[in-house]
Design brief:
- The structure holds two protein chains of two kinds.
- By secondary structure, chain A is an alpha/beta fold.
- Chain A contains nine helices and twelve strands.
- Chain A is globular, with a radius of gyration of 18 Å.
- The termini of chain B are far apart.
- In chain B, helix 1 runs antiparallel to helix 2 and helix 8 crosses helix 9.
- By secondary structure, chain B is of the alpha/beta class.
- In chain B, the strands form two sheets. In chain B, strands 2-1-5-8-10-12-14-16-18-20 form a ten-stranded mixed sheet, with helices on one face. In chain B, strands 3, 4, 6, 7, 9, 11, 13, 15, 17 and 19 form a ten-stranded mixed sheet that branches.
- Chain B contains ten helices and 20 strands.
- The longest helix of chain B is centred in the first third of the chain and has 16 residues.
- In chain B, 22% of the residues lie in helices and 37% in strands.
- Classes of the chains: A alpha/beta, B alpha/beta.
- At the A-B interface, helix 2, strand 7 and helix 3 of A face helix 8 and helix 9 of B.
Chain lengths: 250, 437
Amino acid sequence: MLKIKNLHASVDDKGILKGINLHVKPGEVHAIMGPNGSGKSTLAAVVAGKEEYEVEEGEILLDGENIDELGPEERAHKGVFLSFQYPVEIPGVSVTNFMKTAINETRKAKGLEDMPANEMLKMIREKSEMLEIDRKFLSRSLNEGFSGGEKKRNEIFQMAMLEPKLAILDETDSGLDIDALRIVANGVNKLKSKDNAVIVITHYQRLLDYIVPDYVHVLHDGKIVKSGSKELAHELEAKGYDWIKEEVGA
Amino acid sequence: MELKEKLVSSFMAFENMVDIDSPVHDIRTEAIKQFEVEGFPTKRQEAWKYTSLNTVLKHDYSVFPKHEEALEFKDVKKYFIHDIDSYKIIFIDGKYSSHLSQTTHDGIDVCLMSAALTKPKYRLVIENYFNKIATKDGLSSLNTAFSAEGAYIHIPKNKLVEKPIQILHFSTGNEAALMLQPRNLIVVDENSHVQIIERHQSLTNNPVLTNSVTEIFANKRAIVDYYKIQNDRETASLIDNTFINQKRESIAKVHTFSFGGKLTRNNLNFFQNGERLDSTMKGITIIGNKQHVDHNTLVHHIEPNCESHQDYKGIFDDNSTGVFNGKVIVEKEAQKTNAFQANNNILVSDKASINTKPQLEIFADDVKCSHGCTIGQLDESAMFYLRSRGIPEKEARALLMFAFSNNVLDSVKIPEIKSRITKIIANKLGVNIGFNL
């Protein structure tokens, strides 16, 4: 589904990704771990199409198609979803209206009519219940004044509404207490199917107890320096990242 | 001939045409003299530093339209808030259109200035209120000199006027260039409530210059809600001079929505002549091309325990220019005044500009006065966030702009106006998304 080949990316002429190779197949969960500053969030943003990052070399293929030249909205229409580490506060736009606009614009891009209002409401009700989101919350301005946990839960709610093919969860566990973590992970697990894939970016192993990865990759200085099974995450948790650095000679 | 000379020399003919024996003859005569002295304002005047009338005044305007034109409702329906029951006072090229209007004398007077200025039964109200608060500057004086037609609204005490009143001015393009001087008088007596919607619309691209004066009196505990929808063609210009005199415990709110027009100048003046009253003025300005919108507000706090709230949002694209000049005067006697002023702007293009200037003159020592103005761009991280959810760039931009300005709509009490304004905004921003928030 997603194939990243020798990806080099920079921001303001500063190289951050230095040759990433990653292959994600439908039905898989990949975890990307690594110390601060290793390029995890950059990788997420580059795949989602953030324009301030310059792709200098390599390619990103989604179902065989190079998406490098596509805008973020076109990637979203093709099924890419990024759960933001720091969701942006947008005063004046309610969660509900935002979701309606996002869904109908995506449908428009696919040549479909707007989703009928009752269907939309039903979907909003179901998905918000799944994530234990209070109805009142949905009429509030997007992320404005939300707690850290509310913001992350709202990200997964959006994921549930948009039903992406490829979801990238960027540090979704940060700022979550254990109850919220369980709700969020539970939501992600319910959305998982044999046709979609999830990339979990995290600093810590604890989220991976709930969203169990098929593969774990360690990112260091813009490169994947080690890949393994879920046991690798436990090893990292126990030993920290320093041994990896030593192993790769950094 | 320069426009000023043309106007001065037509005054005699005008007076002969309307009624030289009118009780306001002296006021008009005085006013034309005042206009002769003052003339049109120039950029040398502090209050007009950022707005030049030069390009607007260069046309050879007809001062008295020769032809009378009729319009069919179906052809102009879209300019009305037509999904509500309302009184309507409609003018075509400055002339009253009884065909399109719906006036009343049933307990309240919703009718014409021409009738009020000539019929004896209105004489007392005219004597007490006409030209009592309009200032003596050149433009207001010019309007006073040629004051003959417009809306006359008198709500006696304890009346809750259930239907809003729409005042619409159409210009048909029958004249190559047309100048209009509508004059409105609105008197709302004790404990009464009225809602008014005003709009100016030209139907062709022939230049139109409207120099309007509206005097509003909100007497004790009266509530006046006034909505100005400024979405005219970019060949039409509007100078709106509105004066509001408030008595104690009254509430007056003016919302100004400026999306259209070539040049729009809003001179909005509140005089607080009573205690515990509230003045609110809010506006959304969204313009592009070479449009120019200037909000020049004044709140004169004269008595204690009063409030004023100002909240103006502006979004400027292309080569458009905006001005906000908000003057608040708090007299020494006006203790415990609460005066708030905010002016927030987004410049979408690097060729657009805004000049914003709060001007506070505070002579009392126990008051709360705040002001803030901001000028910024759209937040790029918010743009990425919206786009990453599948909302295309243009729509994302529009959504952010609407979100930036929409709290101004919170205080709009008529849902049909709110939905009309959101539609105009979507249209203006070139998107087809429902902003129903």
